[in-house]
Design brief:
single chain, alpha/beta, Isopropylmalate Dehydrogenase, 12 helices, disordered N terminus
């Protein structure tokens, strides 16, 4: 399976607003959206929030944040952005008590994501930035996807009428970028489902989007081993020899600058990171632990392999601090900035 064409006829220049979803309304999404608007600069791209204006107003009042709100249609957002936070209203009701997630809010959370994808598909938004969701809350309401990434792939297939897509999760920061081959799986299942073809497909999509969206002509991919010391020549498991090494060889034969399998414990120090653009990791925590350790407040979750640009803060709903006014908006601000950067690069 190959990645979709990186340039879509409906792609818009960065003057078209970004769509930002509310996330779980009981989490910190509404708070960091308010703070991100307050922290806007002259270079900040215009964006609108898909949310319930009354709920956002309640959160702003409770937190003492002076943010004028402007309920708008998407086409009115750019003009309103300098003086007010543009909000495209949801049809679903929102309860959104901070720190008290309620499955009754699941329809609004899902609507904000689905409408965001539709607005990008229709050219009314240039990219999608998603605030954190709580999957367990959505599961109680009947949501059956493993996470955001997988559902976005299904929405893209529907809206762009593509064949089957393979969404790839990139966690990006200025310090480190990582892509896990397997994502939201238990460790035992991740190892059982790891295949040479999965590694090759993930790396292909990563390389293609790095060329076409990040503007890196020949991206350098560091392919992590699975076992300690990349298996020590098979003495600590054969997966590195039988699954990962053949994937690296195939990628190299296709002209991809890939190296590995590399010992995971020596891949993430500063000197090692300088030798590659992105690390392809075998399972979720192998990549996300170093990524979040190095850039917890500025990391961005980006979905590759889609016909549109999607970014997200690299953290969760943080129900434990929701409503307390202490949430850090840095990751959302970084997600907005990266989305704008990728839109501008794609438009060239």
């Amino acid at each position: 399976m190959s990645a979709p064409a990186p340039h879509d006829a409906r792609a818009k220049p960065s003057s078209t607003p970004l769509a930002v979803t509310q996330g779980d309304p009981s989490g910190i999404g509404p708070e960091i959206a308010l703070k991100a608007w307050l922290a806007r600069e002259a270079s900040t791209p215009p964006w609108f929030l898909l949310a319930d204006p009354d709920h956002i107003a309640r959160i702003a009042t409770a937190l003492g944040l002076t943010v004028p709100l402007a309920p708008v249609a998407p086409g009115e957002a750019s003009a309103a952005f300098a003086k007010a936070l543009p909000i495209v209203s949801l049809h679903s009701p929102v309860i959104g008590t901070p720190g008290q997630p309620d499955p009754c809010d699941a329809p609004a959370t899902l609507e904000s994501i689905e409408r965001g994808v539709m607005l990008v598909s229709g050219g009314e938004a240039s990219a999608l930035v998603t605030n954190p969701i709580a999957k367990d809350v959505l599961y109680k309401a009947g949501f059956h996807h493993p996470g955001h990434t997988e559902w976005l792939g299904e929405l893209a297939e529907r809206e762009w009428k593509t064949g089957p897509l393979r969404p790839v999760m990139l966690i990006w920061s200025e310090l480190l970028a990582v892509v896990p081959v397997t994502i939201h799986l238990s460790l035992s299942r991740a190892i059982a489902e790891l295949t040479t073809q999965a590694i090759v497909e993930t790396a292909r999509i990563t390389a293609q989007d790095y060329r076409n969206r990040f503007g890196i002509p020949s991206p350098r991919l560091a392919i992590a081993g699975l076992n300690p010391h990349a298996g020590e020549n098979g003495s600590m498991g054969l997966e590195d020899i039988e699954i990962i090494a053949p994937a690296v060889a195939q990628l190299q034969a296709e002209g991809v600058d890939a190296r590995g399998p590399l010992p995971p414990d020596t891949m993430f120090h500063a000197a090692a990171r300088a030798r590659y653009d992105v690390a392809i990791c075998m399972y979720h925590d192998q990549g996300l632990i170093p990524a979040k350790t190095l850039a917890f407040d500025s990391g961005v979750n980006t979905t590759l392999g889609l016909p549109f640009i999607r970014t997200s803060p690299d953290h969760g709903t943080a129900f434990d601090i929701a409503g307390k006014g202490v949430a850090n908006a840095s990751s959302l601000i970084a997600a907005i900035a990266l989305a704008d950067r990728l839109v501008a690069s794609q438009a060239k």
